[in-house]
Batch of 2 targets.
Target 1
Amino acid sequence: AEYEEPTTARRADVTYDDIGGLGSTIDQLREMVELPLRYPELFQRLGVDPPKGVLLHGPPGTGKTRLARAVANESDAEFFLINGPEIMGSAYGESERALREVFEQATANAPSIVFIDEIDSIAPKRGQVSGEAEKRLVAQLLTLMDGLEARANLVVIAATNRPEAIDEALRRPGRFDREIVIGVPDERGRREILGIHTRGMPLAPDVDLKELSRTTFGFVGADMAALTREAAIEAVRRIMPKLNLDERTIPPEVLETLSVTRSDFVEALKRVQPSAMREVMVQA
Ligand code: ATP
């Protein structure tokens, strides 16, 4: 296996509890993906084919990858990640081979979820691409999707922030015929996400997560994660002068008093910008 990275199966350990502000999306995915993977007999009994492909559509950093990992984990399914731009970058013929290998492994290890991140980069509209290699990769993906048996117990989840840019043929029945829109979180969503990312963080009593979620309009999950990381770095900066850097460890009494304060978050807010501002402006 020379082509290791994207084909390595790894059981994901993220759960639905690690995803904030996407309650109804999780419900939809459970119905579309988790139920059929866990109880294929339900769908066989009813004589319907569960979906083979689900397209997650939304701006970057909103949790699409994390969501796919969580569904795999909660469904007890193997998780295979294909990174669109990465697979595109490989040598001639190599991309198709890598794609085939992932599908083969996923089929052999079913139940499984194949997650294709940034699918627009491997399956752009064929009329708009110049290269033969790109066209062949789209064709390969279509062939692989069509070749999946309904009872394969394998679901392909793909993510994009440009659904209009992908080849229409991909969205026909039996391929990515379900679509879930994932938006920028609202205040409640941001509050949930903050709760998740500060779970293991000692917070000073003056930290008001509700207020923070109000003042972070336009922040997506990735921004909220960055914000809490920055706030923690602020706390470290604050404590640095108190440290004796000749010592090998930090005295417990110093460590025990260390927490992240409101002003650490205020400082962090100066450095983290909402990455989804453009989308938010359009929606507003
Ligand atoms: P991209 O399209 O850029 O790959 P994405 O939508 O797949 O982005 P993720 O990679 O899942 O986003 O999220 C990046 C990080 O941001 C996550 O590891 C997590 O720390 C945080 N994050 C994003 N969305 C959420 C969310 N809804 N709840 C909790 N954390 C989130």
Target 2
Amino acid sequence: GGSEEQKRRAGEAAADEVEDGMVVGLGTGSTAAHAIRALGERGVEVEGVPTSFESRQRAVDAGIPLTSLDESSVDLAIDGADQVAGDALVKGGGAAHAREKYVDASADRFVVVADPSKEADALDAAIPVAVLPDARPVVAERVGGLGGEPTLRAAERKDGPVVTDDGALVLDCEFGRIENPGELATALCGIPGVVEHGLFVDLADAVYVGTADGVRVTEL
Ligand code: DER
């Protein structure tokens, strides 16, 4: 993965878009963490909508007041990604992609923060698919039928699988190079038992990539 300095530059640059009075979608992962920290340090008058247990905790630590989609609509969402190819992303490395997707997609503007290691000409990362636990075998079968190779994501410091904030399991599905992300995204949505998948197609509005000496912003 990229360096902490590259992640910091991306996160802090995206945080520059945030103005007093905004409701901000707070992404999950180590790159979005820099944006959350920066918002806290700068004392910007915002309310945050977290995208996971982790991002909620980081918001609390940063002193950012919380709100919810019940009470607020999101002006700007800032979130990381596992891979970026044009306007298609793979997310879900942190197993938070179900909530991330509906918060990010609900925002008036959704910007991705990343380091150069996330950039690719075409998506070829495994696609995390969150599934209802009992549906796992049938989802795995259908993923196979789409040409994917599903692997149940094992936890590290817990026996058994990773369990998401929503109580789902995660199948990491290898499809190789994905020529048509939109098509695959639609197919994955159609599998009964799938809670959410990690293909974010046509959702992001811009990508901030932190480099060794600056940041590259691409409007999508
Ligand atoms: O899980 C996610 O989608 C996160 O955004 C994550 O994949 C990116 O995490 P990182 O910024 O720590 O690489």
